[in-house]
Design goal:
Blueprint: H1 2-17, E1 23-24, H2 27-30, H3 37-43, E2 61-66, E3 86-91, E4 97-103, H4 113-124, E5 128-132, H5 138-143, H6 153-170, E6 176-184, H7 186-201, E7 208-212, H8 218-229, H9 239-257, H10 264-270, H11 279-304, H12 324-331, H13 335-351, H14 356-363, H15 369-374, E8 378-383, H16 393-401, E9 405-408, H17 420-431
Helix pairs in contact: 3-11, 6-7, 8-11, 11-12
Length: 432
């Protein structure tokens, strides 16, 4: 009898110590139709394969503003006056309900298309929803960031946490049963750091946290996006010619259609036409969009901190000021440039920081490995063909999250978030 119990105990020990495997969705049964990761990133999901969502007219929602840094309003130029207060969107249910905070991706405002989609998905399932801009968006940098130098994940999370607390304080009448948190792309990384911060501050006690397509190594993901701008495109020798090429293709496409309507469904149809962009052209288009975000971050951070790297400190920016020379100068500064000239000096001054490798470790999911591994309330959904991932990233996610990681075979970067299968899985996770 003792031998039987001993043998059973050994077996239990073997099974309990075995690694828990991630859920890898079968490519044969998944059904997502876009196999090109660049096309999926740009066009997302065809309309017919998206879930049915409530219309705007069926949602009780409003935009609000909060003054988080009243002292800064007197320092800001006319250009930033409209965003001296932090804006956000709240959709409320009729009675008591759980509340989901949504953190936007790189450079995105709370009202951009992906937060809007996620808002409708969660609202339709019975949640209050709050949409927040990314800490890398110029409006959040101006109104909610203490140092206006995004990129240090712990500081960005602290700014977001303060913003969330301010949102809750502004609506004392809102009846909330539980708090949930999600973010996509860079917002997914931020959600992980916000969740970790909440473990000590205990203001929300998030019931579940969902990271959608987050970067693992933030610097590696940024480098992957930067490389897309350097893609060699046949017949293109500079950015202007590239935009000319895209514009001519779109012109011919709309001329054939007989009307102009730019939306995600149009992009999918466009990619099925003879004017479709090839891989190199799509890569450069995605990379260029990221370069614009980087330029916006570099310009805003430099101006707000009076660093004089892009805008001379003695220049007074007004509504009538020609911004072209500053915009051109900002575009020459990619994210590596922003890190070197603005982020790393600020980080070293505040944290007595050292090498670039130390910063990369501190701002990436690596620094949260133990917490993420041991926290059953946090899950990740990612795509095997996501263009921001580098070698080893999925391995890190597998070893850290186990069966709380779902890997879809297709979708590029966030292209399948509005696919019915993914939407059902998000709701399923929040429902437990």
């Amino acid at each position: 009898m003792l031998r039987v119990f001993y043998f059973a105990a050994v077996l239990c020990g073997l099974f309990s110590s075995a690694p828990v495997l991630a859920l890898d969705v079968d490519p044969q049964t998944y059904g997502y139709p876009i196999t090109n990761p660049f096309a999926a990133t740009l066009a997302t999901t065809p309309e017919a394969l998206r879930p049915k969502l409530p219309e705007d007219s069926d949602i009780d929602q409003d935009d609000y503003k909060i003054q988080l840094h009243p002292e800064r309003a007197f320092e800001l130029t006319d250009n930033f006056w409209p965003v001296t207060k932090m804006g956000y969107r709240l959709a409320r249910q009729k009675g008591a309900a759980p509340l989901v905070f949504i953190i936007a991706g790189t450079g995105a405002a709370y009202s951009s298309s992906t937060p809007e989609y996620l808002k409708k998905l969660f609202y339709g399932a019975g949640y209050h929803v709050v949409q927040l801009s990314s800490p890398t968006s110029y409006d959040f940098m101006v109104s909610a960031s203490r140092f206006a130098t995004p990129g240090v994940s712990t500081e960005d999370a602290d700014d977001l946490y303060r913003a969330m607390q301010a949102v809750r304080a502004q609506h004392p009448e809102l009846k909330v049963t539980d708090y949930y948190l999600t973010g996509y792309s860079l917002g997914g990384l931020h959600a992980a750091f916000v969740s970790k911060l909440d473990e000590t501050r205990r203001s929300f006690n998030f019931k579940r946290v969902l990271l959608l397509n987050p970067p693992v190594n933030l610097y590696a993901s940024i480098s992957n996006l930067n490389k897309l701008v350097q893609t060699e495109v046949k017949g293109v020798s500079n950015n202007t010619n590239f935009y000319d090429l895209i514009f001519k293709k779109l012109t011919r496409y709309f001329k054939q259609k007989g009307y102009i309507d730019i939306n995600e469904a149009m992009l999918a149809d466009f990619q099925s036409s003879k004017e479709a962009l090839n891989d190199e052209q799509m890569a450069m288009l995605i990379g260029t969009a990221f370069r614009f975000s980087s330029a916006d971050i570099a310009f805003t951070s430099d101006l707000l901190n009076h660093r004089g790297l892009i805008t001379p400190p003695d220049v007074k920016i007004k509504k009538s000021t020609d911004m072209t020379p500053y915009f051109r100068r900002a575009l020459t500064c990619d994210f590596d440039c922003y890190m070197t000239e603005q982020l790393i000096p600020m980080w070293r001054a505040r944290y007595d920081g050292g090498s670039l490798n130390q910063l990369i470790q501190d701002v990436s999911l690596y620094s949260l490995k133990d917490y993420l591994h041991n926290s059953p309330k946090i899950a990740v959904m990612h795509n095997a063909d996501d263009i921001i991932l580098s070698r080893g990233d999925l391995g890190f996610l597998r070893s850290t999250f186990g069966d709380r990681l779902t890997v879809y075979p297709l979708g590029g970067h966030c292209g399948n978030l509005n696919y019915r299968v993914n939407s059902d899985a998000m709701l399923e996770f929040f429902r437990g």
